[in-house]
Write a structure and sequence with these properties.
The chain is α/β, with parallel strands linked by helices. The protein is built from 3 helices and 4 strands; from the N terminus they run E-H-E-H-E-H-E.
Length: 126
């Protein structure tokens, strides 16, 4: 059974897009009965990203990596620290981008693979 959840939002100068993302996350979070940590990993931000995140009640860490992967990793590490009292197998982790609006259910529904003709495939020498 899931005891806690963490959602990491890596962000680089996203003060204008972040409010829509955090609004959508707040709606999704209010639909569950477990503790949920919404954490913005502000990476090398020079705008108001950190202030916006805090105004929305998100937890914030600041890093100086200029790397979305490093921001996600730092955010996940912080969520795991915040949920250390829970069984690690019972902590649900997710990530989304600051320019994304999560549906209220927190899920986007079933995903279908694109047709083979639309998928990338390496060229095979003949």
């Amino acid at each position: 059974m899931i005891e806690a959840a963490g959602i990491v939002v890596p962000a680089y100068d996203e003060e204008t897009l972040l409010p829509s993302c955090l609004d959508a996350l707040q709606q999704a979070v209010h639909s569950v009965s477990i503790p949920v940590h919404v954490l913005v990993a502000a990476d090398s931000c020079t705008d108001g990203t950190v202030a916006v995140a805090r105004a929305y009640g998100a937890e914030v860490i600041s890093i100086q990596a200029r790397s979305v992967g490093a921001a996600r990793a730092a955010g996940m590490a912080e969520v795991l620290r915040l949920t250390a009292a829970a069984d690690p197998a019972a902590v649900w982790l997710a990530t989304t981008d600051a320019d994304t609006m999560v549906p209220p259910s927190g899920r986007s529904g079933p995903r279908r693979r694109p047709p083979l003709s639309r998928r990338w495939a390496p060229e095979v020498p003949t």
